[in-house]
């Protein structure tokens, strides 16, 4: 689902979408190997991940899922 969300949030197809799609696999200084438009997509990917990782609603939802999983494991 992560890939679908990143593709959807890219908007129009093209290099930006490609960068957003491959963002999980490009680490640190590897960014410079890509064209400026793909770099924008990779940066967008990182911004989306940072936003969702630190958003209060996502943290609350994650805590709920952990609780449900723990309850299921106890049964």
From TrEMBL:
Domain of life, per lineage: Bacteria
Pfam families: ACP_PD
Alphabetic keyword roster: Hydrolase, Lipid biosynthesis, Lipid metabolism
Lineage: Bacteria, Pseudomonadati, Bacteroidota, Bacteroidia, Marinilabiliales
Any one biological process term the GO annotation gives: fatty acid biosynthetic process
Protein name as it appears in the record: Acyl carrier protein phosphodiesterase
GO molecular function: [acyl-carrier-protein] phosphodiesterase activity
Coiled-coil regions, chain positions: none
Record bears the keyword Hydrolase: yes
């Amino acid at each position: 689902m992560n890939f679908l969300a990143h593709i959807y949030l890219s908007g129009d197809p093209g290099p930006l979408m490609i960068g957003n799609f491959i963002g999980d696999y490009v680490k640190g200084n590897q960014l410079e190997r890509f064209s400026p438009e793909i770099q924008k997509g990779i940066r967008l990917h990182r911004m989306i991940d940072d936003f969702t990782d630190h958003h209060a609603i996502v943290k609350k939802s994650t805590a709920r899922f952990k609780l449900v999983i723990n309850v299921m494991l106890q049964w």
